[in-house]
């Protein structure tokens, strides 16, 4: 087919004629574009997609490796779902691999869109994690192709490093105060304070359900009244002893009835929290409007979200201040950057979930996005264990309360697969243990 035929096949002949453009110039431009689309550089094909499971420090991590037709060019993405790692590995190896092999690695968005609908039913945590592994690995490859860190592909730096908060907890207020002082000495300006474990179970009386032999012996328990009372006392103590300069954060962990959470957040207002996190379960999203009408305490929400219907309304109706999704749980970096863009127009800031059960690749993805978006809020800090750092080379580092990434192309994190294989998943499957109210009723996180 010559160039004139090409133009005709593209339906441009009539347009060229109507505009009076010299056919030779128009033909030239169109033919070049067509040539680039059809006969440019050889396309980069995906040759393999595989899940790698490892637990160097006892936490079940899953990363996806995408290999390409260019020798030595591969990417890594986080697909860590600590509570269900094996189904994610199956979704990657048995379903995403045959879907993606042979496709063009450069067309990241196209691959994401079609992989997303390839299961027909979608937006669940297992498939979203698998998709995130593919997505982030393709961003890593794109960075390596461009010889740039991923944050450059996202627009470049908006800040020199990623400001982080750290966790301080203790069984009583004195222990929490000591922990806060130590964190401040390490350079942290934002500190999450918690009294004991999730829901402060050590504050509750011996639960009646255990005496009645209801549930299993090791089921956890919590008492709403004891938790609320202790949380108010904790804020009072830390503000009084540690001053007003430090920013204080707290996570309700969704565990108390919604109206109790509204009451608690209102009563915390005098202590000026930086944010209060997860006041409600995702099933109780409808309560955010009522919360907003009663207090101006900043609210962070979203680590349990999987589905756009869970976050779009909360952002567009300005019902939260920080969006806190777990990036692999929502399908990867491509989704998170769209959420960030949506949030910018409503001044909702980012606070991506960043616990230990995100792989170093996932933390790097969080940090690269944090660097590049205007509406960055705060990042959850992480301290990788020594063995995790040996398996994942180039993992982000912490300095004076900031997370830093290296300048290598892509995410700058590699994996030593032989070493990773020496740390299999723990025997315990890792499910989330039951938590009960005193009468044994299940508490929903
Ligand atoms: Mg949380």
Major sheet summary line: 10 strands, mixed
Class per helix and strand makeup: alpha/beta
> For this structure, what is the CATH class of the domain at 153-410?
Alpha Beta
**How many runs of DSSP E, i.e. beta strands?**
17
The proportion of strand residues reads: 15-25%
- The CATH topology name of the domain at 153-410 reads TIM Barrel
- Please bin the fraction of helical residues: 40-55%
Provide mean pLDDT, rounded: 92
The total count of helices amounts to: 17
For CATH, the homologous superfamily of the domain at 153-410 is named as Enolase-like C-terminal domain
Distance between the termini: 63 Å
Looking at the overall shape, the CATH architecture of the domain at 153-410 is Alpha-Beta Barrel
Radius of gyration: 25 Å
Shape: globular
Poorly predicted ranges: 1-19
Distinct compounds present? magnesium ion
If you had to describe this structure to a student in words, what would you say it looks like?
Helix content is 41%, strand content 15%. Mean pLDDT is 92; it is low at 1-19. The chain has helices at residues 3-10, 13-19, 23-39, 85-100, 108-117, 125-146, 150-153, 173-185, 208-211, 224-242, 258-268, 288-294, 308-316, 333-344, 360-372, 386-391, 417-420, and strands spanning 46-54, 61-68, 74-78, 162-170, 190-195, 220-221, 247-251, 275-277, 299-301, 322-323, 349-350, 379-380, 392-393, 397-399, 402-404, 414-415, 435-436. By secondary structure, the protein is of the alpha/beta class. Among the domains are: 1-39, no CATH class; 153-410, TIM Barrel, CATH 3.20.20.120. The chain is globular. The strands form 4 sheets. Strands 4, 5, 7, 8, 9, 10, 11, 12, 14 and 15 form a 10-stranded mixed β-sheet that branches. The chain has a 3-stranded antiparallel β-sheet with strand order 1-2-3. A hairpin with a 2-residue loop joins strand 14 (397-399) and strand 15. Magnesium ion binds next to loops.
